[in-house]
């Protein structure tokens, strides 16, 4: 099945029609999407700021154990609601460069998080109060990428 056929099929689903035509469903789903990414990006940003050197009295690994499950768990809200918003108008979203850029940025942010965990974070127990330069670089990149994802999501309403 071609992507275009899949988009046409998704748009024809009764749920997609309800999202387009109902007064409440789309805003409710969008609100849950926003709550989900607020938790996701909020938790990630607090952790990144710690790695960058803010709140040095907080132990990095304990903070990670508290925050990172929230950011991973919030994906259970963000991804399904994102897909629901997507099926309301898949053809035009697939042709929208801002939407494609947003997906690419989410992928880049995920890869950056994986590289951080497989790389500098493995030796976090041995970090002094200052995280190593590579860890700080990942944290800075993470903040920039997630801010760009939010900007692209918001811009979808205008492009
Ligand atoms: C993972 C982190 C994500 C973040 C930070 C994010 C961010 C946003 C933001 C800021 C908005 C605009 C909300 C508003 O202005 O009311 C939005 C809307 C939207 N998002 Fe996401 N999003 C994420 C994931 C996804 C995913 C995975 C998908 C689809 C597969 C998706 C699809 C959409 C769609 C279709 C809209 C509605 C656009 C419109 O107004 O027409 N999002 N998102």
Automatic annotation (TrEMBL):
<feature type="transmembrane region" description="Helical">
    <location>
        <begin position="139"/>
        <end position="157"/>
    </location>
</feature>
<feature type="transmembrane region" description="Helical">
    <location>
        <begin position="99"/>
        <end position="119"/>
    </location>
</feature>
<dbReference type="Pfam" id="PF20349">
    <property type="entry name" value="DUF6644"/>
</dbReference>
<feature type="transmembrane region" description="Helical">
    <location>
        <begin position="24"/>
        <end position="47"/>
    </location>
</feature>
<keyword id="KW-1133">Transmembrane helix</keyword>
<keyword id="KW-0812">Transmembrane</keyword>
<keyword id="KW-0472">Membrane</keyword>
<feature type="domain" description="DUF6644">
    <location>
        <begin position="29"/>
        <end position="157"/>
    </location>
</feature>
<protein>
    <submittedName>
        <fullName>DUF6644 family protein</fullName>
    </submittedName>
</protein>
<feature type="transmembrane region" description="Helical">
    <location>
        <begin position="67"/>
        <end position="87"/>
    </location>
</feature>
<dbReference type="InterPro" id="IPR046586">
    <property type="entry name" value="DUF6644"/>
</dbReference>
């Amino acid at each position: 099945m071609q992507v275009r056929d899949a988009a046409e099929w998704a748009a024809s689903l009764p749920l997609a029609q309800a999202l387009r035509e109902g007064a409440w469903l789309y805003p409710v789903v969008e609100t849950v999407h926003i709550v989900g990414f607020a938790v996701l990006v909020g938790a990630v940003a607090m952790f990144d700021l710690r790695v960058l050197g803010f709140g040095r009295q907080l132990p990095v690994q304990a903070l990670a154990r508290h925050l990172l499950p929230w950011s991973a768990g919030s994906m259970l809200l963000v991804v399904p609601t994102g897909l629901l918003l997507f099926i309301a108008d898949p053809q035009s979203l697939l042709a929208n460069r801002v939407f494609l850029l947003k997906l690419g940025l989410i992928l880049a942010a995920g890869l950056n998080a994986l590289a951080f965990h497989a790389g500098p974070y493995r030796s976090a127990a041995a970090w002094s109060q200052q995280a190593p330069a590579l860890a700080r670089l990942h944290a800075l990149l993470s903040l920039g990428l997630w801010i760009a994802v939010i900007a692209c999501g918001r811009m979808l309403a205008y492009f």
